[in-house]
Amino acid sequence: MDLEQIVPAKIAEHRAIGLAGERRIGLGCMALTGIYGSVGREQAIATIIAALDHGVSLFDTAPLYGNGANETLLGDVLGGRPNATIVTKFGLYADAGGSLYRDSRPAQIRQSVEASLTRLRRDRIDLLIQHRTDPDTPDDDVQACVDDLISAGKVGEFGISGVSADLIARRPMGCALGAVQNELSLATGPKGAEVAASAARGACFMAFSPLGRGILTGSKPSRPDDLRTSMPAFAQLSMNRRCHNGSSGDDIEAGTQASARRALAWALAQGANVIAIPGCRSPDHVSAIFDDADGFTAVHAPMIEDRLAQHVSD
């Protein structure tokens, strides 16, 4: 690795620590407003507070989650906590019928950011992520709009989500990029090209669903309003895990039920610029994941990877 590669990589590492702390972990809040089944408001608040009590300082949300309800929830709990780092998004929304659409026109970005600031009860969004790219809006227009918001003090840094390594690498070098947020877990398999492309741009890599949407901890959809019931990938992963070599999967489930932290360690070991943002729906879930967060080390990664490789296919 030459100097031109080392400097951005070091910047990416420092960015990850600056956003999420030395442990490089945060809380993904999407599940707190019902996407995996309803969660009561009191339980959702208790979950966020439990994360704070466990030293979590980074919280990830979006206007899409609960049509703004997720941001409102975080604003109610974290609005008076300036030390909490908030990540939210723009560019992906749901219409009245629940169908998703993309809109990253500058006017929409500004409107979305103002609405998010109000719901979050903040003057500034620490990290603003384009939830999905918009084929109808040039990247330069998006970047210029976000740059204006950064200059105005309403946004700290800019990131992108749901993008390939090629798209990351093709972004103009003059465009500041603070983060890339993509799915990464043992269930998806390594994404070294995406992690490396992010580091080469000086960006941290935020790994969402690092527990494989529950597949790595034995979690199963039990309610009709759980989004995972409609995910073919989740059903296939579950089947692979249960049926590989005729196994019932009980042995691997027993291991992974207590190994969420090891799965997170694997994700973090994929790069020094990686931040893991597992989702939690209860204080007990927070404790199960974060009680020994200081013990997340790369030494766990090969063990859990070898154990699960027999049961989870890419």
Structure commentary:
This protein is of the alpha/beta class and 314 residues long. It has a single domain, classed as NADP-dependent oxidoreductase domain (TIM Barrel, Alpha-Beta Barrel). It has twelve helices and ten strands. An eight-stranded parallel beta sheet has the order 1-2-3-6-7-8-9-10. The protein has a two-stranded antiparallel sheet with strand order 4-5. α1 crosses α7 and α10 crosses α12. It starts with a helix and ends in a 5-residue tail after the last helix. About 8% of the residues have low confidence.
**Which architecture does the CATH hierarchy give at level 2?**
Alpha-Beta Barrel
Helix segment tally: 12
What's the structural domain tally?
1
Widest sheet: strand ordering: 1-2-3-6-7-8-9-10
- Given helix and strand content, the structural type is alpha/beta
How far is the N terminus from the C terminus?
Answer: 29 Å
- Using the alpha-carbon principal axes, give the shape: globular
Content of β-strand: 5-15%
Q: Give me the Rg, rounded.
A: 19 Å
CATH class: Alpha Beta
Provide the residue-averaged pLDDT.
Answer: 84
Q: Sheet bearing the most strands, described? A: 8 strands, parallel
Give the strand tally. 10
What is the fold's blueprint, element by element?
Layout: H1 3-20, E1 27-28, H2 41-53, E2 58-60, H3 69-78, E3 85-90, E4 92-94, E5 100-102, H4 106-120, E6 125-130, H5 139-151, E7 155-161, H6 165-170, E8 179-183, H7 192-200, E9 204-208, H8 232-243, H9 250-257, H10 260-268, E10 274-277, H11 283-290, H12 300-309
Parallel strand pairs: 1-2, 2-3, 3-6, 6-7, 7-8, 8-9, 9-10
Antiparallel strand pairs: 4-5
Helix pairs in contact: 1-7, 2-11, 3-4, 10-12
